[in-house]
Amino acid sequence: MISSEEFLVLKEVPYKDNDKILHVLSKKKGLIQLMSKGCKKNNSPLINVSQTFAHAKCELYKSKDMYIISSADLINNFYNLKNNMEAFFYGSYILELIHYVALENMIDEKIFDMTVEILKNLSSFSNSFNKLTAAYEFKLAAMLGYKPDLYHCLSCSDNIKNDVVFSFSIQEGGFYCPNCVNNGNGINVLYNEILTLRKILKTKFKDIDSIENLNSKVMDLVRKFLFYHIGKNNFITLKLLI
C-alpha cells in the first residue's frame, strides 16, 4: 500500500553501497525509519531528499518492517545553515532534541510545523539563535504535556501579581509565592519574566521574534525545566555551543 507523507530528515545512516536508512520526523506518523534506495548515486532522484535537514513530501510503501521511498519532492533543505556554524549547531541540536523526545512521545502536527519553522528562522539568520531555541524548548515542553502553571501559586493558589518575586520549581512546574516558598530551593523570577514565559506559550512560533525581555536567566530556566522533564541533558550538539 502506497501512502503520502511529509517528513523531516533527522539522521541519515549509510546502508549497503548506494542506499541510506533515514530517521525522519513524519508529520503523520511521528518518528519512523525510511529506506532510500539508490540515493547515493549521483543521478538518483532521491539524492536531495535523503540528507539530514531535508524537508520533503514523498510516496511510501511498506515492505516487511521498513517504509521505502518510491518518490519524493524536496520542499526545503535549509542550505543556509551550512553557511553559518552557529546556526548549523543550533539546527543540529534541534534535530537531536526532537529525535530523542519522539522516541517516547506521540509527535503531533503542531510540533512538526514548529520544528520546520525554527529551522527556517535559523537558516535566515534573522533572529537571535539562543532566544529562538529557548522559545522552541519551552513551547515543546508544553506540547509534550509538561506545561507549567504560570498564573497561580502552587500551594495557596493566589494569583501571580506584579511587584512580588515568585520562586519557580523545576520539578513541580510552577511558582510559589513568598508566603509559601520552601527553603529557597526554587529559582527566583520577576513578574516581567513570568509575563515573558506566558507570551512564549501564547505566541505563534512564526511571530516569536516579537517577544522582548527573553533574558539569559529565563533561557536557562526554560532549558533546565525541559531537560528535567524529558530526563536528558547531555545532548552532543549542544556541547558545541557552550
Please name the defining characteristics of this protein:
2 domains, 6 helices, elongated, OB fold (Dihydrolipoamide Acetyltransferase, E2P), 9 strands, 34% helix, five-stranded mixed β-barrel
Describe this structure in words.
With about 240 residues, the protein is an alpha+beta fold. It has two domains: about 1-75, Nucleic acid-binding proteins (OB fold (Dihydrolipoamide Acetyltransferase, E2P)), CATH 2.40.50; about 80-150 and about 190-240, no CATH class. The chain is about 35% helix and about 25% strand. The protein has six helices and nine strands; from the N terminus they run βββββαααββββααα. The chain has helices at about 85-100, 110-125, 130-145, 190-200, 215-230, 235-240; strands at about 1-15, 20-25, 30-35, 55-65, 65-75, 150-155, 165-170, 175, 185-190. A hairpin with a 3-residue loop joins β1 and β2 (about 20-25). The N and C termini lie far apart (about 45 Å).
Order of strands across the main sheet: 1-2-3-5-4
- Overall, the morphology is elongated
The number of distinct helices, counting runs of at least 4 residues, comes to 6
Strand composition percent: 25-35%
**Number of E-type strands:** 9
Mean pLDDT over all positions? 91
Which structural class should the secondary elements be placed in?
alpha+beta
From the alpha carbons, calculate the radius of gyration and give it in angstroms. Answer: 20 Å
What number of domains?
2
- The level of helicity is 25-40%
